[in-house]
Amino acid sequence: MAKSNDSDLFPIFPSTPTGIARLAAQAKHADDGHLVEFRALEVRSILNKSVSKRRLSMAYSINPYRGCEFGCKYCYARYTHEFMAPKASTEATEARDAIGAIDMRNPLTFERLIFLKQNAAWLLEQELKKIDPVNEIALGTATDPYQPIERRTRITRSLLEVFSRKSGYRLGIVTKSRLIERDIDLLVEIAKRNTLVVHVTITTPDAKLARMLEPRAPRPDLRFQAVKRLREAGIVAGVFGSPLLPGITDTEEALDGMARRAAAVGASFFAAHPLFLKPCSRPTYLSFIHEYFPALEADYAKRFATADFAGRSYSEQLKKMVDQACRRYGIGKRSSDALLTRNEDDGRRAPQSAGVHAVQRRLFA
């Protein structure tokens, strides 16, 4: 992809934005990928403070990037790019669209225009001095910290280097990428003096389905291998099977297969929760259903007609199946009442904390 400028693929809105929208407007071209542009974002903070709806604890999140290359069809964080869109009148919006400017409210922009947070490690050093280490820090809640651009920018690694020199913190990491294996040396150091739990998201072991669902994420077998390597290094790491897709991956057979594979690689835990469809993720996910599973369209229309989240009875049914699968293979499970690192146990036992989605929905820095 040739280098772009402000008048072609990703021009900046002709308006006077403020806040994060202003920072986005000032972001300079940094790199290119396949159908992706990267821009350097000068942020003022790297830690985002969040409060759980369940009032469990205060938590902080870190997202080294804004936007994500993996392009997962169900991604609930696509709307976060909207925060960087300038507030403008209808006339200004129409004028902007008329000249072909990128629409930050378009869900696809989230995977086509990625912002790289600058000076992340320095900011983290300063901000860690101001927080109580008892509060959890979640790395990778709205974007994957190990998406492909991390190979070149190494922003996530720079953050882990900071944590490797600290003691007493609680760090939870969520990723779909085997690139995390690169940083095992730092993760081992972090785990010596801090609480560390790694969650490797694997929605399906079926490589063909995964390629349709998560087009630019690593193959499932490579992710299982990453869990194995993390466990061999003594790191608490498990398989996060969310979201469970109605009619596709939410069967007892599918959950049994996931738990069995998780146990085979020595995973500390296995957890999985129902799909939820926010307005920003509906267009891409329902287009996926229309293309590959048209027989399920009516079911999805009914399920999500009046709510974004799964019903209680369905959720409880899935929880029961996940629990049974974990018991069947002697693998740890996580309850839905705690955060990423709460009640972390050693060895194969899981941290009793599967409420990752509940936390992720609120950690969108």
Summarize the structure in short:
Helix content is 35%, strand content 14%. It has 365 residues and is an alpha/beta fold.
Structure characterization notes:
It is a single chain. The chain has one domain: pyruvate-formate lyase- activating enzyme. Helix content is about 35%, strand content about 15%. It is built from 14 helices and eleven strands. It is of the alpha/beta class. Helix 4 (about 120-130) packs parallel to helix 6 (about 155-165) and helix 10 runs parallel beside helix 13 (about 310-330). The strands form two sheets. The chain has a seven-stranded mixed beta sheet. It has a four-stranded mixed beta sheet with strand order 1-2-6-5. It is globular, with a radius of gyration of 20 Å. It has helices at about 20-25, 90-100, 110, 120-130, 150-155, 155-165, 185-195, 205-215, 220-230, 250-265, 280-290, 295-305, 310-330, 355-360, and strands spanning about 30-35, 35-40, 50, 60, 65, 115, 135-140, 170-175, 195-200, 235-240, 270.
Rg from Cα: 20 Å
Secondary structure tally, helices: 14
Which CATH class applies here?
A: Alpha Beta
- Average predicted local confidence, pLDDT: 82
**Terminal residue distance:** 28 Å
Q: Main beta sheet: strand number and arrangement?
A: 7 strands, mixed
Please tell me what the overall shape is: globular
Q: Tell me the strand order in the biggest sheet.
A: 3-4-7-8-9-10-11
At the fold tier of CATH, the topology name is: pyruvate-formate lyase- activating enzyme
Structural class: alpha/beta
Q: Output the helix-strand order.
A: HEEEEEHHEHEHHEHEHHEHEHHHH
Annotation, overall tally of beta strands: 11
Spans of at least 5 consecutive residues whose pLDDT stays below 50 are: 1-18, 53-58, 94-100, 344-365
CATH architecture: Alpha-Beta Horseshoe
* Number of domain units: 1
